[in-house]
Amino acid sequence: MARPTRRTPTGGGDPSNASWSGDDLERRLIELGRRVDAPSPGTLVSSVTQRIAAGQQPRPWWRSILDVRERRALRPVWMPMRQQAAVAVAVVVVVIGGILAVPATRDTVAGLLGLGGVQIQQVPELPPVQGPADLRSRLGERVTLATARSSERFRIVLPATLGEPDEVYLSGRYPGGVVSLLWNARPELPTASVIDAGLLLTEFAGSINSRTMVAKLLDRGGTVESVTVAGEPAYWISGRPHEVVLVDENGEYVFETLRLEGDVLLWAHEGVTFRIESGLSRDAAIRIAESIR
Amino acid sequence: MEEAELVDRTKAGDVRAFEAIVRRYEAVALRTAHAILGSAPDVDDAVQEAFVKAYYALGRFRSGSPIRPWLLRIVANEALDRRRASSRPVSLGLRPDSEVEPADVHELTPEASAVLREQQGELLAAVNALRPDDRLIIAYRYWFDMAEAEMALALGCARGTVKSRLSRALARLRAQLPRAVGEELPGPLVPDG
Question: Among A6, A74, B40, B136, which residue carries the largest CB count within 10 Å?
Answer without folding.
Answer: B136
